[in-house]
Each structure stands twice: as C-alpha cells, then as structure tokens.
Write a structure and sequence with these properties.
Layout lengths: L36 H15 L3 H14 L4 H13 L3 H14 L4 H13 L3 H10 L1 H4 L3 H13 L3 H14 L4 H13 L3 H14 L4 H13 L3 H14 L4 H13 L3 H14 L4 H13 L3 H14 L6 H11 L3 H13 L3 H10 L2
Length: about 350
C-alpha cells in the first residue's frame, strides 16, 4: 500500500507502476552517405558532440548540416536524439518525424520515435512504429525490450512477457529487460520470479536504480521494512529527485513508525509530481498515523480520482471514514475494496461491519 514499483525505460511504475528512468537506448545513426561534403562534415561534428554529451553543441552542428542539406534524414534523427537527451521531447518527436518523412524506410527513426511516443503517452503510436520495423529489428534485444514496455502500457501482459523473454534470450545480461520483466512478474503476483529477475539485474549492475527500488518493494512485500529502506536509499543515491523513490522511502518510514521523517519526503514527491496517486495515498496514511483522519480523507479521495487501482486504497479510505465516525461509509469502502480483491478491506468488513 502506498508503494511504487519502477520500470526501466528509455531515458530510461500502483503497488506497481511503470516509470521511465534509465539511459535512453535510442539508436544513433553514424553514416553520412549521399550527402554533400559540407553537410557531412557538420553531421560528423554533431556526432562527436553527441557522444561527448554536449547536446546543445550537437544540435547546433546538426542544424548546420540541415541548412546545407534539408532532406538529410540522418541529421534529423540524430538531432532528435540530442534534443531528447536535452529534455526536449516535443522537439525530438518532430525531428524523428521529419527523418521519416525524408526516408520512409528509416528504421532507426521509427525506433527512436516509438520511444518518445511511449514516454509522452502515445502508446498506440509507439506500437505502430515498432510494428513498422518488426522484421528489421526482431532479433534486437533493445527492440524486444521496448516492445515489452509498450505492451505493458497497453495492458497486454502475455505479449509483454513474450517480448521480455525474447529480449533476455537474445541478451541474458540485458539489465533493462530483466528489471522490467521483474516488474511485470510482480504485477502478476509472481513474486519468486520477480525476485529472481531483480536480483539478477542487480548482480549485473548493482547501481541500477529501478532494480534497487524494485528490490526494496519485494522486501517490503515480505514485511522486511528496515532492509527495504536500505535499497530505496541506494536508489535515491543514484537519483535523488526521483518522485516515486521519495514516496517509497516515505512509505517505508511510516511502516517503521517514523512519520516525522516521512512527511517532508512525500511532500517533495508531490511537488515533483502532483499526479502521483500513490504519494497522495502515502500522505493520507501519514495523517492517519498522526490521528488526523479529516485530513487523510481528501488525500485518499485524490488518489482514488487519479488511480482507483492503488493497492489497499479502499482499505485506507475505510479506516479514515471509521475514524471520523462514519461507519456506513467505512463499510461501503471496505466492501468496494473486497470486490477488487483487497484482502485487508475484506478483513475489516468482516470484523466491523455486521
């Protein structure tokens, strides 16, 4: 309850939610065929700056190349990647589309555009781009990983697992695929398989922040809150302002009866992402812990509005309603929770609602 699982993706989460949090694995095209010499020189200079992570300089050089050769598909594609890494999603999307307009068979541009579309919420568009290049990239572990991510967002777990399985088969040390498949297993309550994938991912990369956070979740699910806290703190050491990690740490601190330490973390999480239903739930749990159910209820209702699938949400709503003396509303909340498989809500309804 109140805790988010994370997934690695390109720039790469409701007990399980998918977050885009690792290194952007987009393909970089380094060719300069069929261009004028001058445009090619600017393009190659852009590639050097891109690999040095000097994204603004890379964008400048690619723009110079495009000024010399306006139909230079490779320059559009690589400028799109530089813009993406410089946090300009819309600019990246536009450049990838221009690359495809210039070369309708440009597989790299379709793959890169699929990643941006996935991150910006156009999941159907992402799948369409990936399907467009399926024959070309079917044996790419990165392609299969992204295909799995897209199917997860489309709520097609069987297709997602098949893609992740293929990604791991193609490259057994694909940390991203292992982490994301582990997240999928967790969502399906296949905890042993989730644990195997997350532990393997951490063996390969002990600093993979999504895997660290997910291992924290697995430990929390087993009731090992103190040990879970050490893992989420390691994740935060890698990404100190990741809102889901901040919320997860706050949740664990509440479980460890440390509410004073928890509240600034969940408040910061909400400042970074006010649409995080899980953080609203955690803040509600904080108010419950300090005997302020009247303040807890609005947070729980906000979480419900954002995502009614948050774990044990109706159990928490029922506790808050009961604490304010509204027993009928509490029983109704627990009954609703029971209807969606919330065992804690069922327990409370059986015990209190006679």
């Amino acid at each position: 309850m109140g805790y988010r699982l994370t997934k690695v993706d390109n720039s790469f989460c409701h007990s399980f939610i998918w977050v885009f949090i690792i290194y952007h694995s987009s393909l970089i095209n380094l060719s300069c065929s069929n261009t004028t010499d001058e445009a090619a020189q600017f393009f190659l200079k852009g590639n050097v700056q891109l690999q040095k992570r000097e994204y603004r300089e890379a964008i400048r050089y690619y723009s110079e190349a495009l000024a010399k050769k306006p139909d230079f598909a490779d320059a559009y594609s690589n400028r799109g990647l530089a813009k993406f890494r410089n946090d300009d999603r819309e600019g990246a999307l536009a450049d990838y589309t221009r690359a495809i307009d210039a070369d309708p068979d440009f597989g790299t541009a379709y793959f890169n555009r699929a990643e941006v579309r996935l991150e910006t919420g156009d999941v159907s568009g992402s799948l369409a781009d990936l399907q467009r290049i399926e024959k070309q990239y079917t044996d790419s572990t990165f392609y299969q990983t992204r295909l799995g991510d897209t199917y997860v967002r489309l709520n097609k777990p069987a297709e997602a697992q098949a893609a992740y399985d293929r990604a791991v088969q193609l490259q057994p040390d694909n940390v991203e695929a292992l982490t994301n498949r582990g997240a999928l297993f967790f969502s399906q309550k296949a905890y042993e398989q989730a644990d195997q994938d997350i532990r393997r991912a951490l063996q390969l990369n002990p600093n993979q922040d999504a895997a660290l956070n997910n291992q924290s979740l697995l430990l929390a699910h087993a009731g090992n809150y103190a040990e879970a806290l050490t893992y989420v703190e390691r994740a935060l050491a890698v990404r100190s302002n990741q809102p889901y990690y901040l919320n997860n740490k706050a949740f664990l601190l509440l479980k460890l009866d440390r509410p004073t330490e928890a509240v600034p973390l969940v408040q910061e999480s909400l400042r970074l992402d006010g649409q995080n239903a899980w953080a609203h739930q955690t803040l509600g749990l904080y108010f419950l812990s300090v005997k302020e159910p009247d303040k807890a209820l609005p947070e729980f209702r906000r979480a419900e509005k954002l995502d009614a699938a948050v774990d044990e949400l109706y159990y928490a709503i029922g506790l808050a309603e009961w604490a304010t003396g509204n027993k009928m509303a509490a029983c109704a909340a627990w009954q609703r929770g029971e209807s969606v498989g919330d065992l804690s809500a069922k327990r409370e309804r059986v015990l209190r609602c006679r």
